[in-house]
Amino acid sequence: MIDVTLNTGDASYYLYYDNASTHAANYADSYVDFRYSKCGYAGSGAWAVSANTTCVNQTINVGGNLSFSDVNLLLNLINTTLNFTTTSNGESVTVGAKQYLSLRDIDGKAETTNDASNITAGDFSKRLKFYVGSGGYFTMSNSHVSGVGYAANDYTVRGLVIESQWANVTNSTITQSEYGLYLAYANYSNVTLTNVSSVSQAALHVENSTNVGASFNVLRGTQYGAYMRSVSDSNLTNNNMSYAVYGAYVTGNPVGGNLVAFNNLTGNSKHGVTLEA
């Protein structure tokens, strides 16, 4: 038997078996087990990334959870869309310790929007769990996430939840979610030039973190533009946080060393900025 798996986006495949001198007598019993996969995903069920994988110019319907089978593995999405066929809340994208997920476009230019990567729930009435755990690595640029997060006591299911350091989100959009970006213990993470809208709670939620930067974003949450609790030495600057109940809400201990400045806070129904020690 020859067992071949092709991980490619090409439309036509050719396989040649050319060893007639030694195997002519066995032709009748020979066959090829020919499987087509997109970026290592077989097309149904859960997807466990088992090798460093780069997906380019793909649209993949994912029928189960996305995770990694081991540490030190990378999934790099470039102009690739993952549509999750969510039939109930809780289907998940999980990035654990020493695992890497990157979403980006092809040309690195925010003005060209047709080459973005996307992760989305198939039915926004049912939401994905999107969780980057401690020690995981996540970057997102010129890309989109939608339909993640739902109301629950477990904060790891509330939005695009990043519980790891050094995350970077830039020139991207997050929509149709419970929370937008939910950062916890996410020291040294940055969110820039990103549009978060159509979320039920906070567009940006940051807690128990230090040295977080959020600047030049549009943060349109129903309850909060940005909510920061027990955050220190962080910057919330030059953002548009309008038309929520609270524009920016900073609370908890510590609250020292934070800069909240140069933000647009118009149209919030209660307060533009609330500082609560």
Helix content: under 10%
Using the CA coordinates, give the radius of gyration.
22 Å
The biggest sheet, with number of strands, parallel, antiparallel or mixed sense and barrel status, is: 9 strands, parallel
Silhouette: globular
Ends: how far apart?
Answer: 69 Å
Report on this structure.
This protein is an all-beta fold and 277 residues long. It has a domain at 44-200. The protein contains 1 helix and 28 strands. It has one helix spanning 20-23; strands at 2-7, 32-37, 47-49, 53-56, 59-62, 66-68, 73-78, 81-84, 92-95, 99-104, 118-121, 129-132, 137-141, 144-146, 160-162, 168-170, 173-177, 181-184, 190-192, 195-199, 202-210, 213-215, 218-221, 224-232, 235-237, 246-251, 259-261, 271-276. The radius of gyration is 22 Å and the shape is globular. The N and C termini lie far apart (69 Å).
Structure summarized in a few sentences:
The protein is mostly beta strands.
Topology of this structure?
Blueprint lengths: L1 E6 L12 H4 L8 E6 L9 E3 L3 E4 L2 E4 L3 E3 L4 E6 L2 E4 L7 E4 L3 E6 L13 E4 L7 E4 L4 E5 L2 E3 L13 E3 L5 E3 L2 E5 L3 E4 L5 E3 L2 E5 L2 E9 L2 E3 L2 E4 L2 E9 L2 E3 L8 E6 L7 E3 L9 E6 L1
Task: Jot down its keywords.
277 residues, mainly beta, nine-stranded parallel β-sheet, eight-stranded parallel β-sheet, 28 strands, globular
